[in-house]
Amino acid sequence: VQLVESGGGSVQAGGSLRLSCAISGGTYSNYCMGWFRQAPGKSRFGVAAINRLGLVSYADSVKGRFTISQDNAKNILYLQMSGLKPEDTAMYYCAANPDSCASLWRSGPDTYWGQGTQVTVSS
Predict the structure, then answer these.
(1) Which end is more exposed in the chain, N or C (fewer Cβ atoms within 10 Å of the end residue's Cβ)?
(2) DSSP assignment letter at 101
């Protein structure tokens, strides 16, 4: 499975961005898909996930501001981000796990990763 992110950029606090992740290769229809982020000097952690049934889950820090969705026809995963804060500044990674969303949230060993796209939010 190959994952290629796009849509990152620089915005002011309160602004919005939509990240996209193009998915290709393999059979990933049963995968759990998600987004992670990593700020400089900090560990990577999960932001949002969506399973094959369309059930979504979010980190508490982004609930009500971020929305994860998937266009199965186009094989694209999205992360709509609004109400952005400076603390949202990070490299954002698309992720896919064939086992479960629980394994995705744990960054399980079978997780596939994209190369990342930078999001910078200025105050």
Answers:
(1) C
(2) H
